[in-house]
Amino acid sequence: MLYSSYSHYAEDATLWFDSGRVQLADYKKDWRKLINDGGGVVKNVISDLNVQMGPGDTTAVATYQLDVETRMPDGNITKDHAHETDVWFLGDGQWLIAHIHYTVEPPPGAPE
After folding, report:
1. Taking the domains of the chain in order of start, what are their residue ranges?
2. Is the pTM of this model over 0.70?
3. What is the pLDDT of residues 32-49, one digit of tens each?
4. How many CB atoms lie within 10 A of CB 87?
5. Fold of 9-105
6. What is the pLDDT of residues 49-78, one digit of tens each?
7. Do residues 60 and 52 touch, judged by C-beta distance below 8 A?
8. Residue 88: which residues within 8 A CB-CB, separation 6 or more?
9. Could you give the CA distance from residue 21 to residue 67 in angstroms, rounded to a whole number?
């Protein structure tokens, strides 16, 4: 069984997805359930990466696009083109994600 330890997330991180704000504990639980039920990431390609450093080099903001294919437990594959922003803080010698905003772009021709 393979999934992230989430050691790169601040415990009080804010996570925004299309469904709204998600608590880190719920995100971990949902991800582990997906993996345990036979799902997982098939493809995750990052493009258009831009990283900006804040004053004092203790804050970094990374923005990028993602093409993600996820195998669902029923075997179906979802394909998303998404945009993500990650905010990282440096504290006690460790970079941690303090905020993620992830938005899936609707497929061409989808109703707005």
Report:
1. 9-105
2. yes
3. 999 999 999 999 999 999
4. 18
5. Nuclear Transport Factor 2; Chain: A, (3.10.450)
6. 999 999 999 999 999 999 999 999 999 999
7. yes
8. 59, 60, 61, 62, 95, 96, 97, 98
9. 22
